[in-house]
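Could you join me in thinking about how sequence relates to backbone shape in a protein? We need material for that, and I hope you will provide a protein of your own picking. Once you have written the record down, we can walk along the chain together:

…
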Amino acid sequence: MFHFRPLLLGVSAAALLAGAASAKDDITIAIQLEPPHMDPTSAAAGAIDSVLYSNVFEGLTRFDSSGAVIPGLAKSWDISDDGLNYIFILHDNVKFHDGTTMEADDVKFSLDRIAAEDSANAQKALYAAIKEVNVIDAATVEINLSEPNGNMLFNLAWGDAVIVAPESIEGIKQTPIGTGAFKFDSWTQGDKVELSRFDDYWGTPAILSNATFKFISDPTAAFSAMMAEDIDVFSGFPAPENLPQFEADPRFQVLVGSTEGETILSTNNKMPPFDNVKVRQALAHAIDRQSIIDGAMFGYGTPIGTHFAPHNPAYVDFTGMSNYDPEKAKALLAEAGFADGFETTLFLPPPSYARRGGEIIAAQLAQVGIKAEITNVEWAQWLESVFKGKNFGLTIVSHTEPMDIGIYANPDYYFQYDNPAFQELMTKLNSTTDPDMRTAMMGDAQKIIAEDYVNGYLFQLAALSVAKSGLQGLWSNAPTQANDLTAVSWSE
């Protein structure tokens, strides 16, 4: 606060006030989805990483804004020639937000916890090759694998593998304590999470002193809050039809990038009639992807024909196998014994791509005789009944984890696809380090699930954000579901 004597009022006061305004060092960032809790290591909800990834929690490795894997809490590592032994050297003087020291014991605790029988880690399978974790000394950790895994450094960068402490694990779902540049202050459920700069951070300190994450699920409310400048940035802006207004307004900047989000019409492969590949193929041909992109996302998005990001160098375009052909869809349904169609359920979680896209898809399916009964659900319900309970026919969700085609090797995953040949291919891929061989295998994997029509592959979700024009350092692309604020600042 400036305290002025009367004689200072005038030009000098105005200049000082301008200086004060330019020194803004806090941010209010809105996102559409509220996390169900604050532990990224025990839930599938990407909204947890949206708030906490890199800001509050860190792993041995991490993703940068381009999606590259870079050092995190580990400053370096050595991998044995046979790919079975990893030695990680940790950064010195790393503190948890409660003041305790982060050491190799905490790394062992975190990774052992993922593998535990009662583990709730949503991506447990990614770390199944970890045979044992040994503490060499306080700054050195050894990870031994049962088989080589060319993705291990990549997998360790996921939010599911962040380092937590045994001392604070009991309360982690409500009070997350990590090692990041920001510490958790408070969570007002239904409204906001507040973070503040951690003064004992081991690395480059955050520029911002405070960050507030607001949860605004309604697209109309999102538009109003941004236009009123009640918020500084809306990450994953849910009303793409409004973006031209923001682009034309000098107060704002619009960031358009790519995500790792394969948006799919998830199909319960064990539930009749979806256990019949011809029915799943009929679904694929009943869907007009471009009209969904245009109608639900106002043109933002890239059609896909398999579960792989188009910007990935290993992507193969299989959209031609799922071209919009309602007559072919009807013929396939007749061949499968459903000439008169059938009824099923369509569960839609809160994001706009699901709620808006679901209405369009239901209308398209009705054209070929499939009556999909829409049920709108909140994320907690979706995670419980669809993801865990597998009690659904169809649902729409964007899988935002990076390069996650390996989920199709897990027959217990919620869409219940069980293909031993695909599982064997993934095992081989995990043990292969040669880049060309890996690219070829990833192409084969994409082809298998495209030919099996496991799910209805819709589009790659675009990363759409609106921010005030003075903000810098925000990620345009979303290589993982994160709002990394560690390098964000206001221009002078």
About this structure: The longest helix spans residues 435-451. The longest strand covers residues 252-267. The mean pLDDT is 92.
